[in-house]
Write a structure and sequence with these properties.
Elements lengths: L1 H6 L7 E3 L16 E2 L10 H20 L3 E2 L3 E5 L5 H14 L5 E3 L1 H7 L7 E5 L3 E3 L1 H14 L3 E3 L3 E8 L2 E7 L4 E6 L2 E3 L5 H7 L4 H4 L3 E11 L10 E4 L11 E4 L5 E4 L3 E3 L11 H9 L10 E12 L10 E5 L4 E8 L5 H19 L2
Parallel strand pairs: 1-8, 4-14, 12-20
Antiparallel strand pairs: 2-7, 3-7, 4-6, 5-6, 9-10, 10-11, 13-16, 13-17, 13-18, 15-16, 19-20
């Protein structure tokens, strides 16, 4: 919806086709709700640049339009001496990315800020926060509608045919099938973005757009125990490709959650395996020793789209106009996982810029 919000400002006739009954029912609503600082992503990557810009834009949007948010700050704590080297590398990367307010904390400084958090040393990221993601989506949708955008739910794209000038998009609803002729197509289909690219005739494997699904579960903490921390608390990221580790977040009501874990799945199943409770507890108690296993209750789960085929830890976003593959005016957004929420207003502006370039 951030893309529709941005491109509708250029006086276009915009149609948003959503296969589900409502907006944001998949990746966009099943996450930690964190406004990220940009520390994890390689300098020069889209993830780094769009996260940093999105962070600034998102706080400004929330302030201007009354969208719920809190600039809580975040701690990345090294619980073991072996993690200090990676903490050094994160600090150096954050400095190169220009992460606002980043600083190193000694054990004593950490204890002063977060008495219950265990750590030898830590990084403090004051620009990290949380946002009411459903309210943000409603704002983007209302803004787009206010400029004439039509948002059509229960409308699944089943075929995309290139024409002499633009594309013919086949759409199926529960009651009918119809066609939309479009000068440009922006593929923001999230978990299904590779499939939509394939509908346009693109060789998804050759383009490097094949995706794997990674599921992340969450456990919530009893409300009376949620006051153990005042900020978001993250571990030093593991060396695996699966994510930044099970971390401690707070929602706008002050409720604590643990998660997500990350493991590959083949289908869209949002259940939480209660058998993973001990894994969450053992991971979280390294940073928060006061936690007890009975404090944890199953909460929710999400699935993120991750690009296949790279050995690097951080897979970058793909946001690309596809003239080079014979599809002028077709823009793919593939592998938009974290920090997609934070980056969303900047992604919208980036896509609007690509469209302006194609229309010159």
């Amino acid at each position: 919806m951030a893309v529709a919000h941005s491109i509708a400002r250029d006086d276009r006739a915009v149609f948003v086709l959503e296969k589900n009954a409502g907006l944001g029912q998949e990746t966009s609503s099943r996450h930690s709700g964190v406004i990220h600082s940009g520390i994890y992503y390689p300098p020069g990557s889209l993830k780094a640049s769009l996260c940093l810009e999105g962070n600034r834009m998102l706080y400004a949007l929330c302030e201007k339009h009354g969208i719920g948010h809190r600039r809580l700050g975040k701690i990345i704590a090294a619980a073991h001496p072996a993690e200090l080297g990676e903490l050094d590398r994160l600090q150096e990367r954050g400095g190169r990315n220009g992460v606002a307010g980043l600083r190193r904390l000694s054990r004593a400084e950490l204890k002063k800020l977060e008495p219950e958090v265990a750590g030898l040393e830590a990084l403090l990221l004051p620009s990290t926060g949380i946002v009411d993601a459903p309210a943000l989506m409603r704002f983007f949708a209302a803004s787009a509608r206010g400029r004439g955008t039509q948002i059509l739910c229960r409308s699944e794209v089943t075929a995309i045919t290139k024409q002499a000038a633009g594309y013919r998009v086949a759409v199926r609803t529960p009651t009918e099938q119809y066609y939309v002729n479009a000068r440009t197509v922006v593929n923001c289909a999230g978990l299904h973005s590779a499939a939509v690219a394939g509908l346009a005739g693109m060789d998804v494997a050759a383009a490097g757009y094949e995706m794997a699904y990674f599921k992340g579960e969450y456990f919530s903490i009893a409300r009376e125990r949620s006051k153990l921390v005042r900020r978001l608390v993250y571990p030093v990221p593991p060396s695996s490709l699966e994510g930044v580790g099970i971390h401690i977040t707070l929602d706008l009501e002050g409720r604590m959650r643990l998660g997500p874990n990350a493991f590959p799945v083949q289908s869209l199943d949002y259940s939480v395996d209660v058998g993973h409770k001990r894994q969450f507890y053992e991971s979280a108690r390294k940073l928060l020793p006061a936690l007890e296993i009975d404090d944890l209750e199953p909460d929710t789960a999400g699935i993120r789209p991750r690009l296949k085929g790279s050995e690097s830890r951080i897979m970058d976003f793909v946001i690309r106009e596809e003239s080079g593959r014979g599809l002028p005016g077709f823009i793919n957004l593939v592998g938009i996982e974290s920090p997609g929420l934070t980056s969303s207003p900047a992604i919208g502006e980036y896509v609007a810029g690509l469209l302006r370039e194609t229309e010159r």
